[in-house]
Please model this.
Amino acid sequence: MAKQVKLKAERRTATGRSAARKLKARGAVPAIIYGAKDKPQPLQLSARDIHAMLSHASGENILVELEIDGEKSNRLALVKEIQHSPVGSDVLHIDFHAVSMDETIQADVPLEALGIANGVKNFGGLLEQSLRSLAIECFPRDLPDRITVDVSELNIGDSIHVRQIQLPPGVTSKVLPDLTAFSVLAPVVEEEPVVAEAEAAAAGPEVIKEKKEEGETAAPAAKETAPKEKATPREKEQKK
Model:
């Protein structure tokens, strides 16, 4: 189940970049809590407490019990968004979504494979994970850190669909049941070269003979078939 953390917070009146820089100089982080029936409330928390919370978090979903200065009862909230500095790991802002122990919440929970698929271990297949997280609905007390799926029995061609995933008690899926979560693909086999191509390569390059010019073959033929010219009457008299 998701770990519940208790944090102290103070109400914040000043907003904007200038106010945020002043908070950072004092070692505080601006935040806001919204949801439920209350209006959004700007808050400020200790940067040291925030870093301690994140370093001990076992998943992406963190339930927080906020002890807000001036309020009689603590408020339960889910860490919704954390803004980090582009340079370094400083936390710039946190969004908390107020929840109630008596009302269901929706969250995306990481989906992880457990074990090594038989098709991968013994037949060289490839495990493909189509879903990295699963959208679920549950009460805050039942919120899991992650959902693990045993894939050790999968052979090549086998798949695990969302409807086949064993969910923790009190948790229901909000994803289409026929979607594939995990599957084992057949190994990629390299095609062997064609035998004819191998033989051609072994025989060496083909030698192309020089083509004869047309005049070399056409001239003799023309000489043999050309008709003889007849002599004129004057040429006959001269021969006499």
User: Anything to note?
Assistant: Helices lie at 17-25, 47-55, 118-121, 195-203, 214-225, 233-239. The CA atoms of residues 230 and 236 lie 10 Å apart. The two ends are 134 Å apart (CA to CA).
